[in-house]
Protein backbone atom coordinates (compact mmCIF):
# COMPACT_ATOMS: atom_id res chain seq x y z
CA UNK A 1 0.00 0.00 0.00
CA UNK A 2 2.79 2.39 0.88
CA UNK A 3 4.57 1.52 -2.32
CA UNK A 4 1.38 2.19 -4.20
CA UNK A 5 1.00 5.59 -2.55
CA UNK A 6 4.58 6.51 -3.36
CA UNK A 7 4.02 5.39 -6.89
CA UNK A 8 0.90 7.48 -7.27
CA UNK A 9 2.65 10.52 -5.85
CA UNK A 10 5.47 10.08 -8.31
CA UNK A 11 3.10 9.43 -11.14
CA UNK A 12 1.01 12.48 -10.36
CA UNK A 13 4.18 14.58 -10.31
CA UNK A 14 5.21 13.07 -13.62
CA UNK A 15 2.01 13.60 -15.49
CA UNK A 16 0.52 16.61 -13.76
CA UNK A 17 1.61 19.01 -16.45
CA UNK A 18 0.32 16.80 -19.21
CA UNK A 19 -3.33 16.44 -18.57
CA UNK A 20 -4.36 16.86 -14.96
CA UNK A 21 -3.81 20.49 -14.11
CA UNK A 22 -6.02 23.19 -15.47
CA UNK A 23 -6.87 26.73 -14.53
CA UNK A 24 -10.46 26.01 -13.71
CA UNK A 25 -10.09 24.15 -10.46
CA UNK A 26 -13.14 25.54 -8.70
CA UNK A 27 -16.06 23.29 -8.03
CA UNK A 28 -19.19 25.21 -7.33
CA UNK A 29 -22.45 23.38 -7.23
CA UNK A 30 -25.41 25.33 -8.57
CA UNK A 31 -28.15 23.07 -7.29
CA UNK A 32 -30.99 25.26 -6.05
CA UNK A 33 -31.69 24.44 -2.47
CA UNK A 34 -35.21 23.23 -1.79
CA UNK A 35 -37.95 25.43 -0.35
CA UNK A 36 -39.28 25.17 3.18
CA UNK A 37 -42.54 23.77 1.78
CA UNK A 38 -40.61 21.00 0.07
CA UNK A 39 -38.64 20.27 3.25
CA UNK A 40 -41.78 20.16 5.39
CA UNK A 41 -43.32 17.62 3.05
CA UNK A 42 -40.10 15.63 3.02
CA UNK A 43 -39.91 15.67 6.83
CA UNK A 44 -43.36 14.09 7.06
CA UNK A 45 -42.25 11.28 4.78
CA UNK A 46 -39.03 10.83 6.78
CA UNK A 47 -41.06 10.55 9.99
CA UNK A 48 -43.23 7.88 8.38
CA UNK A 49 -40.15 6.02 7.15
CA UNK A 50 -38.25 6.16 10.44
CA UNK A 51 -41.38 5.71 12.53
CA UNK A 52 -41.73 2.19 11.23
CA UNK A 53 -38.24 1.32 12.43
CA UNK A 54 -37.38 0.85 16.07
CA UNK A 55 -34.54 2.97 17.47
CA UNK A 56 -33.85 4.37 14.00
CA UNK A 57 -32.28 1.03 13.10
CA UNK A 58 -33.47 1.61 9.59
CA UNK A 59 -33.33 -1.38 7.32
CA UNK A 60 -32.21 0.25 4.14
CA UNK A 61 -33.84 -1.18 1.06
CA UNK A 62 -31.41 -2.30 -1.63
CA UNK A 63 -31.69 -0.34 -4.86
CA UNK A 64 -29.69 -0.36 -8.05
CA UNK A 65 -30.20 2.73 -10.20
CA UNK A 66 -29.59 2.53 -13.96
CA UNK A 67 -27.55 5.48 -15.17
CA UNK A 68 -27.23 6.96 -18.64
CA UNK A 69 -24.47 9.47 -19.37
CA UNK A 70 -25.36 11.80 -22.24
CA UNK A 71 -21.90 12.78 -23.47
CA UNK A 72 -22.22 16.04 -25.42
CA UNK A 73 -19.43 16.61 -27.94
CA UNK A 74 -18.84 18.27 -31.31
CA UNK A 75 -17.70 15.35 -33.40
CA UNK A 76 -14.42 14.47 -31.69
CA UNK A 77 -13.28 10.85 -31.87
CA UNK A 78 -14.09 8.75 -28.83
CA UNK A 79 -11.31 9.38 -26.34
CA UNK A 80 -10.72 12.95 -27.49
CA UNK A 81 -12.08 15.53 -25.05
CA UNK A 82 -14.94 16.10 -24.45
CA UNK A 83 -16.01 12.79 -26.03
CA UNK A 84 -14.52 10.77 -23.17
CA UNK A 85 -14.02 7.02 -23.10
CA UNK A 86 -16.23 4.31 -21.75
CA UNK A 87 -13.46 3.47 -19.29
CA UNK A 88 -13.61 6.93 -17.73
CA UNK A 89 -17.39 6.53 -17.32
CA UNK A 90 -16.94 3.07 -15.78
CA UNK A 91 -14.51 4.45 -13.26
CA UNK A 92 -17.16 7.00 -12.23
CA UNK A 93 -19.73 4.26 -11.60
CA UNK A 94 -17.18 2.47 -9.42
CA UNK A 95 -16.68 5.68 -7.41
CA UNK A 96 -20.44 6.11 -6.90
CA UNK A 97 -20.79 2.54 -5.70
CA UNK A 98 -17.90 2.88 -3.29
CA UNK A 99 -19.02 6.25 -1.94
CA UNK A 100 -22.70 5.36 -1.49
CA UNK A 101 -21.78 1.90 -0.19
CA UNK A 102 -19.79 3.33 2.72
CA UNK A 103 -16.44 2.09 1.48
CA UNK A 104 -14.94 5.12 -0.24
CA UNK A 105 -11.36 4.42 -1.30
CA UNK A 106 -9.96 6.89 1.26
CA UNK A 107 -12.31 5.95 4.12
CA UNK A 108 -9.33 4.99 6.26
CA UNK A 109 -8.59 8.72 6.58
CA UNK A 110 -11.52 9.08 9.03
CA UNK A 111 -9.88 10.05 12.34
CA UNK A 112 -10.15 7.55 15.21
CA UNK A 113 -11.96 10.10 17.40
CA UNK A 114 -14.00 11.84 14.73
CA UNK A 115 -17.12 13.52 16.14
CA UNK A 116 -17.26 11.38 19.28
CA UNK A 117 -18.03 14.45 21.40
CA UNK A 118 -20.71 15.54 19.01
CA UNK A 119 -22.29 12.06 18.97
CA UNK A 120 -22.26 11.92 22.78
CA UNK A 121 -23.47 15.50 23.33
CA UNK A 122 -26.33 15.01 20.91
CA UNK A 123 -27.14 11.57 22.37
CA UNK A 124 -27.24 10.15 18.88
CA UNK A 125 -28.96 6.76 18.57
CA UNK A 126 -26.73 3.72 18.24
CA UNK A 127 -27.69 3.47 14.57
CA UNK A 128 -25.83 6.73 13.92
CA UNK A 129 -22.61 5.68 15.69
CA UNK A 130 -19.90 3.14 15.00
CA UNK A 131 -18.11 0.93 17.51
CA UNK A 132 -15.70 3.73 18.36
CA UNK A 133 -18.52 6.13 19.21
CA UNK A 134 -17.84 8.15 16.08
CA UNK A 135 -20.57 9.39 13.77
CA UNK A 136 -21.01 6.34 11.56
CA UNK A 137 -20.09 6.29 7.89
CA UNK A 138 -23.31 5.11 6.26
CA UNK A 139 -23.94 2.46 3.68
CA UNK A 140 -26.93 3.76 1.67
CA UNK A 141 -27.56 0.31 0.15
CA UNK A 142 -28.07 2.23 -3.10
CA UNK A 143 -25.90 1.20 -6.00
CA UNK A 144 -25.55 2.32 -9.60
CA UNK A 145 -25.18 0.46 -12.88
CA UNK A 146 -24.62 1.44 -16.47
CA UNK A 147 -27.86 0.99 -18.43
CA UNK A 148 -27.60 -1.76 -20.99
CA UNK A 149 -30.83 -0.86 -22.79
CA UNK A 150 -32.08 2.47 -24.10
CA UNK A 151 -35.50 3.95 -23.47
CA UNK A 152 -36.97 1.87 -26.30
CA UNK A 153 -35.51 -1.38 -25.00
CA UNK A 154 -32.70 -1.60 -27.55
CA UNK A 155 -29.31 -2.82 -26.39
CA UNK A 156 -26.72 -0.08 -26.14
CA UNK A 157 -23.45 -0.34 -28.03
CA UNK A 158 -21.71 1.13 -24.99
CA UNK A 159 -23.53 0.47 -21.72
CA UNK A 160 -24.64 3.64 -19.95
CA UNK A 161 -23.53 5.94 -22.76
CA UNK A 162 -25.50 8.13 -25.17
CA UNK A 163 -23.05 10.10 -27.30
CA UNK A 164 -24.55 13.27 -28.78
CA UNK A 165 -22.91 15.51 -31.37
CA UNK A 166 -24.46 18.92 -30.70
CA UNK A 167 -23.75 20.07 -34.27
CA UNK A 168 -25.87 17.23 -35.61
CA UNK A 169 -28.66 18.21 -33.24
CA UNK A 170 -28.43 21.87 -34.20
CA UNK A 171 -27.72 22.90 -30.62
CA UNK A 172 -25.39 25.77 -29.67
CA UNK A 173 -21.91 25.10 -28.33
CA UNK A 174 -22.15 24.65 -24.52
CA UNK A 175 -19.04 26.80 -24.03
CA UNK A 176 -20.97 29.81 -25.39
CA UNK A 177 -22.85 30.21 -22.08
CA UNK A 178 -20.82 31.97 -19.44
CA UNK A 179 -23.34 32.68 -16.67
CA UNK A 180 -25.14 30.29 -14.41
CA UNK A 181 -28.54 31.49 -15.64
CA UNK A 182 -27.85 31.33 -19.38
CA UNK A 183 -26.23 27.92 -19.00
CA UNK A 184 -29.16 26.62 -16.94
CA UNK A 185 -31.57 27.85 -19.63
CA UNK A 186 -29.48 26.15 -22.31
CA UNK A 187 -29.62 22.86 -20.41
CA UNK A 188 -33.28 23.03 -19.38
CA UNK A 189 -34.69 24.34 -22.65
CA UNK A 190 -32.49 22.76 -25.32
CA UNK A 191 -30.27 19.92 -24.16
CA UNK A 192 -32.36 18.08 -21.61
CA UNK A 193 -35.83 18.05 -23.26
CA UNK A 194 -34.31 16.85 -26.52
CA UNK A 195 -32.26 14.00 -25.09
CA UNK A 196 -33.79 12.93 -21.78
CA UNK A 197 -34.64 9.30 -21.12
CA UNK A 198 -37.59 8.26 -18.95
CA UNK A 199 -36.84 9.85 -15.60
CA UNK A 200 -38.75 7.11 -13.78
CA UNK A 201 -36.38 4.49 -15.15
CA UNK A 202 -32.98 6.19 -15.48
CA UNK A 203 -30.77 8.64 -13.70
CA UNK A 204 -29.91 11.02 -16.55
CA UNK A 205 -26.44 12.58 -16.33
CA UNK A 206 -25.48 15.14 -18.98
CA UNK A 207 -21.82 15.91 -19.30
CA UNK A 208 -20.48 18.78 -21.37
CA UNK A 209 -17.56 21.10 -21.74
CA UNK A 210 -18.19 24.59 -20.35
CA UNK A 211 -17.09 28.19 -20.64
CA UNK A 212 -13.93 28.97 -18.68
CA UNK A 213 -15.89 31.86 -17.15
CA UNK A 214 -18.46 29.51 -15.65
CA UNK A 215 -17.31 28.33 -12.23
CA UNK A 216 -19.97 25.65 -11.80
CA UNK A 217 -18.94 22.02 -11.80
CA UNK A 218 -22.32 20.37 -11.35
CA UNK A 219 -26.03 20.84 -10.79
CA UNK A 220 -28.79 18.44 -9.85
CA UNK A 221 -32.53 18.24 -9.49
CA UNK A 222 -33.96 17.56 -6.08
CA UNK A 223 -36.53 14.76 -5.87
CA UNK A 224 -40.05 16.03 -6.55
CA UNK A 225 -42.65 15.28 -3.88
CA UNK A 226 -45.88 13.71 -4.98
CA UNK A 227 -48.38 15.82 -3.10
CA UNK A 228 -46.94 19.22 -3.91
CA UNK A 229 -46.75 19.34 -7.69
CA UNK A 230 -46.60 23.10 -7.85
CA UNK A 231 -43.76 23.87 -5.50
CA UNK A 232 -40.88 25.74 -7.13
CA UNK A 233 -37.49 24.32 -7.98
CA UNK A 234 -38.65 20.79 -8.56
CA UNK A 235 -37.77 18.99 -11.74
CA UNK A 236 -40.09 18.00 -14.54
CA UNK A 237 -40.04 14.87 -16.67
CA UNK A 238 -38.10 16.83 -19.28
CA UNK A 239 -35.45 18.28 -16.96
CA UNK A 240 -34.92 15.88 -14.03
CA UNK A 241 -31.33 14.74 -13.63
CA UNK A 242 -27.78 16.00 -13.24
CA UNK A 243 -25.32 18.04 -15.26
CA UNK A 244 -21.57 17.80 -14.65
CA UNK A 245 -18.52 19.35 -16.26
CA UNK A 246 -16.90 16.61 -18.34
CA UNK A 247 -13.52 16.95 -16.63
CA UNK A 248 -15.03 16.18 -13.23
CA UNK A 249 -16.29 12.75 -14.34
CA UNK A 250 -14.33 9.63 -13.48
CA UNK A 251 -11.50 8.56 -11.25
CA UNK A 252 -7.86 9.29 -11.90
CA UNK A 253 -6.84 6.51 -9.52
CA UNK A 254 -8.96 3.90 -11.32
CA UNK A 255 -8.38 5.21 -14.83
CA UNK A 256 -5.32 7.47 -15.07
CA UNK A 257 -5.69 8.13 -18.79
CA UNK A 258 -8.86 10.18 -18.66
CA UNK A 259 -9.49 13.91 -18.92
CA UNK A 260 -9.58 15.49 -15.46
CA UNK A 261 -9.06 18.82 -13.78
CA UNK A 262 -6.92 19.43 -10.81
CA UNK A 263 -9.14 19.58 -7.75
CA UNK A 264 -11.65 16.95 -8.83
CA UNK A 265 -9.81 13.94 -10.12
CA UNK A 266 -11.72 11.29 -8.26
CA UNK A 267 -15.34 11.53 -9.28
CA UNK A 268 -16.67 13.26 -6.16
CA UNK A 269 -18.48 16.00 -8.08
CA UNK A 270 -21.02 13.45 -9.27
CA UNK A 271 -21.14 11.81 -5.82
CA UNK A 272 -22.11 15.25 -4.43
CA UNK A 273 -24.74 15.87 -7.12
CA UNK A 274 -26.26 12.41 -6.73
CA UNK A 275 -26.55 13.29 -3.04
CA UNK A 276 -28.81 16.23 -4.05
CA UNK A 277 -30.64 14.00 -6.52
CA UNK A 278 -31.51 11.76 -3.55
CA UNK A 279 -32.68 14.65 -1.34
CA UNK A 280 -29.53 15.68 0.54
CA UNK A 281 -28.68 19.27 1.37
CA UNK A 282 -25.32 20.98 1.70
CA UNK A 283 -23.66 20.27 5.01
CA UNK A 284 -23.82 23.95 6.05
CA UNK A 285 -27.54 24.21 5.19
CA UNK A 286 -26.80 26.97 2.65
CA UNK A 287 -26.64 29.53 5.48
CA UNK A 288 -24.33 30.55 8.31
CA UNK A 289 -24.71 27.55 10.66
CA UNK A 290 -27.81 26.61 8.66
CA UNK A 291 -29.84 23.44 8.90
CA UNK A 292 -29.25 20.42 6.67
CA UNK A 293 -31.98 18.55 8.56
CA UNK A 294 -29.59 15.78 9.58
CA UNK A 295 -29.08 15.35 13.32
CA UNK A 296 -25.77 13.57 13.01
CA UNK A 297 -23.95 16.25 10.98
CA UNK A 298 -22.60 19.09 13.15
CA UNK A 299 -23.62 22.59 12.04
CA UNK A 300 -21.12 24.38 9.81
CA UNK A 301 -20.60 28.10 9.41
CA UNK A 302 -20.10 27.91 5.64
CA UNK A 303 -18.83 25.63 2.92
CA UNK A 304 -15.26 24.35 3.22
CA UNK A 305 -12.68 24.14 0.45
CA UNK A 306 -9.23 22.68 0.03
CA UNK A 307 -8.06 19.84 2.25
CA UNK A 308 -8.81 20.71 5.92
CA UNK A 309 -7.36 18.75 8.85
CA UNK A 310 -9.53 17.39 11.68
CA UNK A 311 -10.71 19.04 13.89
CA UNK A 312 -11.55 21.97 11.65
CA UNK A 313 -13.30 25.19 12.73
CA UNK A 314 -14.18 23.86 16.20
CA UNK A 315 -16.69 26.14 17.83
CA UNK A 316 -17.70 27.84 14.58
CA UNK A 317 -21.36 27.31 15.46
CA UNK A 318 -22.88 27.60 18.91
CA UNK A 319 -26.53 26.47 18.67
CA UNK A 320 -25.91 23.61 18.93
CA UNK A 321 -22.22 23.93 19.55
CA UNK A 322 -19.86 21.99 17.32
CA UNK A 323 -17.01 22.41 19.83
CA UNK A 324 -14.54 20.63 20.03
CA UNK A 325 -15.10 18.43 16.96
CA UNK A 326 -15.73 21.19 14.44
CA UNK A 327 -17.25 20.83 11.01
CA UNK A 328 -17.76 17.65 8.98
CA UNK A 329 -15.67 18.85 6.04
CA UNK A 330 -15.11 15.25 4.87
CA UNK A 331 -18.78 14.81 4.11
CA UNK A 332 -19.58 14.52 0.39
CA UNK A 333 -22.10 17.35 0.75
CA UNK A 334 -19.35 19.88 1.51
CA UNK A 335 -17.17 21.65 -1.11
CA UNK A 336 -13.87 20.23 0.13
CA UNK A 337 -11.60 18.94 -2.66
CA UNK A 338 -12.49 15.44 -3.82
CA UNK A 339 -9.60 13.59 -2.15
CA UNK A 340 -10.59 15.17 1.19
CA UNK A 341 -14.10 13.67 1.22
CA UNK A 342 -15.16 10.12 2.03
CA UNK A 343 -18.45 9.91 3.93
CA UNK A 344 -22.18 10.23 4.22
CA UNK A 345 -24.01 9.76 7.53
CA UNK A 346 -26.94 7.62 8.67
CA UNK A 347 -29.38 10.55 8.68
CA UNK A 348 -28.33 11.39 5.15
CA UNK A 349 -28.96 7.75 4.23
CA UNK A 350 -32.45 8.02 5.73
CA UNK A 351 -33.20 11.04 3.52
CA UNK A 352 -32.03 9.17 0.42
CA UNK A 353 -33.98 6.04 1.31
CA UNK A 354 -37.07 8.19 1.92
CA UNK A 355 -36.68 9.82 -1.49
CA UNK A 356 -36.24 6.44 -3.17
CA UNK A 357 -39.38 5.09 -1.52
CA UNK A 358 -41.60 8.12 -2.11
CA UNK A 359 -40.64 10.55 -4.85
CA UNK A 360 -42.56 9.82 -8.06
CA UNK A 361 -39.37 10.29 -10.09
CA UNK A 362 -37.34 8.01 -7.82
CA UNK A 363 -39.62 5.28 -6.52
CA UNK A 364 -39.46 3.08 -9.63
CA UNK A 365 -35.75 3.48 -10.32
CA UNK A 366 -34.92 0.25 -8.56
CA UNK A 367 -37.48 -1.79 -10.55
CA UNK A 368 -36.03 -2.70 -13.89
CA UNK A 369 -34.02 -5.07 -15.99
CA UNK A 370 -32.11 -2.27 -17.64
CA UNK A 371 -28.67 -3.37 -16.46
CA UNK A 372 -27.46 -6.87 -17.22
CA UNK A 373 -24.85 -7.21 -14.52
CA UNK A 374 -26.67 -5.80 -11.51
CA UNK A 375 -23.92 -5.14 -9.07
CA UNK A 376 -24.20 -5.51 -5.35
CA UNK A 377 -21.91 -4.53 -2.53
CA UNK A 378 -20.28 -7.91 -2.07
CA UNK A 379 -19.52 -8.23 -5.72
CA UNK A 380 -18.17 -4.71 -5.85
CA UNK A 381 -15.93 -5.40 -2.90
CA UNK A 382 -14.48 -8.38 -4.73
CA UNK A 383 -12.77 -5.97 -7.06
CA UNK A 384 -10.28 -5.29 -4.31
CA UNK A 385 -9.27 -8.96 -4.28
CA UNK A 386 -8.17 -9.03 -7.91
CA UNK A 387 -4.43 -9.37 -8.19
CA UNK A 388 -1.75 -9.96 -10.75
CA UNK A 389 1.42 -12.01 -10.34
CA UNK A 390 4.31 -12.23 -10.61
CA UNK A 391 5.17 -8.56 -10.39
CA UNK A 392 7.85 -7.63 -11.41
CA UNK A 393 7.65 -10.04 -14.35
CA UNK A 394 9.75 -10.89 -17.36
CA UNK A 395 7.33 -13.10 -19.28
CA UNK A 396 3.99 -14.62 -18.33
CA UNK A 397 1.65 -12.78 -15.98
CA UNK A 398 -1.47 -14.27 -14.43
CA UNK A 399 -4.57 -12.37 -13.20
CA UNK A 400 -6.53 -13.84 -10.31
CA UNK A 401 -10.10 -12.79 -11.15
CA UNK A 402 -11.73 -13.87 -7.86
CA UNK A 403 -14.69 -15.35 -9.67
CA UNK A 404 -15.32 -12.37 -11.95
CA UNK A 405 -15.58 -12.82 -15.70
CA UNK A 406 -12.79 -11.23 -17.69
CA UNK A 407 -13.74 -8.95 -20.55
CA UNK A 408 -10.39 -7.44 -21.51
CA UNK A 409 -6.95 -6.52 -20.22
CA UNK A 410 -5.41 -3.33 -21.62
CA UNK A 411 -1.73 -2.46 -21.32
CA UNK A 412 -0.56 1.16 -21.33
CA UNK A 413 2.99 2.47 -21.09
CA UNK A 414 4.11 5.01 -18.50
CA UNK A 415 3.24 7.97 -20.70
CA UNK A 416 -0.29 6.71 -21.08
CA UNK A 417 -0.03 5.34 -24.62
CA UNK A 418 -2.05 2.24 -25.33
CA UNK A 419 0.11 -0.82 -26.13
CA UNK A 420 -2.15 -3.82 -26.62
CA UNK A 421 -5.13 -5.78 -25.29
CA UNK A 422 -5.40 -9.35 -24.03
CA UNK A 423 -8.52 -11.43 -23.57
CA UNK A 424 -7.32 -14.22 -21.28
CA UNK A 425 -6.17 -14.01 -17.65
CA UNK A 426 -2.75 -15.32 -18.71
CA UNK A 427 -0.77 -12.89 -20.83
CA UNK A 428 2.87 -12.17 -21.63
CA UNK A 429 5.09 -9.14 -21.28
CA UNK A 430 7.81 -10.82 -23.29
CA UNK A 431 7.67 -8.37 -26.21
CA UNK A 432 7.78 -5.25 -24.05
CA UNK A 433 10.88 -3.28 -23.15
CA UNK A 434 11.96 -3.04 -19.51
CA UNK A 435 10.11 -0.45 -17.46
CA UNK A 436 6.77 0.05 -15.81
CA UNK A 437 3.37 -0.30 -17.38
CA UNK A 438 -0.27 0.01 -16.43
CA UNK A 439 -2.57 -2.98 -16.57
CA UNK A 440 -6.28 -2.09 -16.77
CA UNK A 441 -8.44 -5.13 -16.08
CA UNK A 442 -12.05 -5.02 -17.24
CA UNK A 443 -14.43 -7.60 -15.82
CA UNK A 444 -18.20 -7.97 -15.86
CA UNK A 445 -18.28 -6.24 -12.46
CA UNK A 446 -15.76 -3.45 -12.52
CA UNK A 447 -12.52 -2.05 -13.83
CA UNK A 448 -9.27 -2.04 -11.88
CA UNK A 449 -5.87 -0.58 -12.69
CA UNK A 450 -2.47 -1.85 -11.59
CA UNK A 451 1.12 -0.94 -12.15
CA UNK A 452 3.44 -3.72 -13.29
CA UNK A 453 7.18 -3.74 -13.80
CA UNK A 454 8.74 -5.51 -16.76
CA UNK A 455 12.20 -6.78 -15.81
ZN1 LIG B 1 -24.27 20.97 -3.99
Description:
The protein is of the alpha/beta class. The protein has two domains: 23-102 and 137-280 and 344-380, Collagenase (Catalytic Domain); 386-454, Immunoglobulin-like (Sandwich). 22% of the residues lie in helices and 17% in strands. It has helices at 2-20, 36-51, 86-101, 116-121, 166-169, 180-191, 268-277, 346-358, 377-382, and strands at 28-29, 63-73, 142-146, 161-165, 203-208, 216-220, 242-245, 387-389, 396-400, 406-413, 418-422, 426-428, 435-443, 447-454. Strands 1, 2, 3, 4, 5, 6 and 7 form a seven-stranded mixed β-sheet that branches. The longest helix is centred in the first third of the chain and has 19 residues, at 2-20. The protein is globular, with a radius of gyration of 22 Å. The relative contact order is 0.16. Bound molecules: zinc ion. Zinc ion (ZN) is lined by residues 29, 31, 272, 276, 282. Residues 29, 31, 272, 276, 282 line the site of zinc ion.
